[in-house]
Amino acid sequence: MTSTGTRAAVAITKLQSMPSLFTRRALRTVVTICLLMSMRPGSGYGQTGKPERPPAGKRTTTSDDGNGLIDVQPSDLLKTPVTNNWTSYNGDYSGARHSGLTQITRANVGRLAAQWVFHPRTVSPLEVTPVVVAGVMFVTSANDAYALDAKTGKVLWHHIRAVSQGLVDDPAQHHNRGVAILGTRVYMETDNAHLLCLDARSGHLIWEVAFGTGNKNDGATSAPLIVKDKVVVGISGGDAGVRGFLAAFDAETGEEKWRFWTIPGPGEKGNESWPGDSYLHGGGATWMPGTYDPDLNTLYWGTGNPAPDFDGSVRPGDDLYTSCLLALDPDTGALKWYFQFSPHDLYDYDAVQTPVIVNARFKGQPRKLIVTANRNGFLYILDRTNGKFLFATPFMNTQNWAKAIDENGRPIPAGRTPDEKGVRVCPANGGATNWYSPSYDPSSHLFYFRSFEACAIIQSNIKPFEVGRTYYASGTRSVDEPAKAYINAFDLNTLDFAWRDLQIGRNKGWGGVMSTATGLVAYGDDANNFVILDGQTGKPLWHFHVGQLVHASPMSYAIDGKQYFAIAAGSDLFSFALP
Amino acid sequence: MWPRRVEALLVVAILFGCASRGVQAQSTNAERGAQRFMEYCAGCHGADGMGGDKAPALVSPSNSTHLSDSELFRIVHDGTKGGMPPFAQIGDANIRAVVEFLTRLRNNAPPTNASAEAAVPGDVDTGRTLYFGKAQCSACHLMQGKGGFIARNLTSYGRTRSAEEILHAITNPDTPLVPSSQVATVTTRTGQKLTGPLRNEDSFTLALQTEDGRYHLLSRSDVTDIHYSGHSLMPRDYRTRLSPKELNDIVSFLIIASRNPPPDKAEGR
User: Fold this and answer.
1) Domains located in chain B, CATH noted
2) Which DSSP string corresponds to A297-324?
3) Which residues of A touch B217 (CB under 8 A)?
4) Which chain A residues touch B241 with a CB distance below 8 Å?
5) Does residue A436 lie in a domain region?
6) In the A/B pair of chains, how many CB contacts fall below 8 A?
7) pTM of the model
8) Can you tell me the ipTM of this complex?
């Protein structure tokens, strides 16, 4: 401390001898900054790209009181359930998307009113879930990032970055699902698979890493996930023939720490599905945030479909590790176990739906579980300590691609192999559910999720991989049958549905769900409404017509004792609270 | 040529101080454009060009980024069918200045020929040392990922500015004053005094950022007094704190650093 104290003293002396042109306030400002700079360990001149932290023992708060001070510690990210702050895409690490806030209840939710609307203007529909820390909300729209006053929706800073040209498929739509936050920094992925580190207090770019493989079909749409001192990112482009991976970067420096390839290379287990260099285009994208169990020190992350989507003849066998849940060591990226929901998938059944961490009794025994509703039409319960299959049940009435799930959790295919003429497959390639978030209420043990009942004619033919093109190897046709959507409540105590709410509306909704400690469930319906239900009964309690289809999942936060719900709808972000 | 011109400018600056007439005389086209923008454009398009209730953003990727200067000129001159009124009455020179200012607002503006090719007036390495040392620029300004957060990021600042313009900005700060940089002192109902840049303000709320990075998000009803300093945090004595050579060195560092992309990371793996 001696040396830094001396430096500060010198700075003050020099400043005080300055001419009168220098006003007192400006003097005080510069001195204060000098003192702050000098006192912070590791923050000397030229080094302040690091997260700045007050000296040990002098830290004020955990930024959980709406005080505007953004300094998120790794321990802050362990809080579950989330309350005032919503610190990551899914809220907490469990992926339960369950808020511990209790101000808004069944009794008063009818008085909920719009507080503000934010219109970022760069992309539609928005797919972001905002992150809120200390009353400041962080939002992304295409490659732009914003900090907002979460009470008013007014912009505090805006980091502008032009969208990328020449992308393929989903990333070419420039969707982005939000930020991760650690210390005084926020992290986001760009449409062309760069990881940006921004100063959360200013929006200024601190560093940037291109994390793709150089394949021009690479892209990114997800929000990163912070685990301890690392930022974990996934890749999009599974329908465009990328080689999927998860990668972890040092949150301070941007240095790559590990990379796990979801398509094994030559000599690795599972490579037998990938003859020649086909592993370089095998898909298995990792395009939604995973979950993390700090007690087991395990990262859970879903992988997408194999590529090409509909032609399985070029990828014999199970096509590891596509359509899987991976359990990884977050420190090294080493694989602990995997569970494959749809071996040798032929129907675009990504398995990137949130793997929700649940501690509950299963058939009377307390267990550490993963609960997830899969795009293939089955809800699964796994033992998350070892990946052992415990339970599956279909949640789509018209499911026809699998005869059953066997005792090990492996589907028994019904033999519907796509060909040039096409086969009718249910669920359609869009899935019986999709990336829109599920939710889990630990007090009621109800697991909530949106499901979709639709079939498609899926066709296939042989097609080579091409840079700059999608790699479906043929396509799909819709069938002339009415589709249905449901919001579901699955009871982990009874292993049956508590209720299913049939959605009424002309659109295909893409709205995820969240739940609260007061038994509410919030989501966007199929008729451009933001809706809050009674989580016990499924009865709607309140709605607001946002006038645009919801392609996002809601969140909740609180400032100065006031609870808010926020939801992106169409090209706008809405916030609601009691009057 | 450049060093002599810059030295001459410095001599003028030192001899005449920062009297407003002197500042006016030295105003560049872009600075005039900034002033005209605040007068004619900011009311609808926002002070930062990011759009408002009546008009769209001018600097976001989906809007004017791809328009040429002549297209922008025509829009400002003639207005649009979408409802923007014509501004022919402010004169072609002012319109050109506004267009130049808009070009600089864009984050991905290409370097001008002047700054991309011209020699710089001082020593870049010495300038870097000054930037992160004696001159204390990095206490507030980020440069290629290093430095403070309270003031603007200078990483690409020198890409589109001449040495004279940068020198002028260092020695004559706040011409013009960017609204979101203006320092205000707010007194709250509880008697708390808060001083820092006013990041956002309207008839109902204030967002003030203190130097610890904290955002104070206040309702007008929580505020009993607000004093606008008329200045940003930028010190206003650099022409006396630093020698002409040191100023030239910093200017040179800002230009050269902006030509080079941030080391390694931005270029990918």
Assistant:
1) 24-105 (1.10.760.10), 114-176+236-261 (1.10.760.10), 183-228 (2.30.30.100)
2) TEEEEE---BSSSS--TTS-S--TTTTE
3) 68, 135-136, 149, 151-152
4) 18
5) yes
6) 166
7) 0.81
8) 0.84
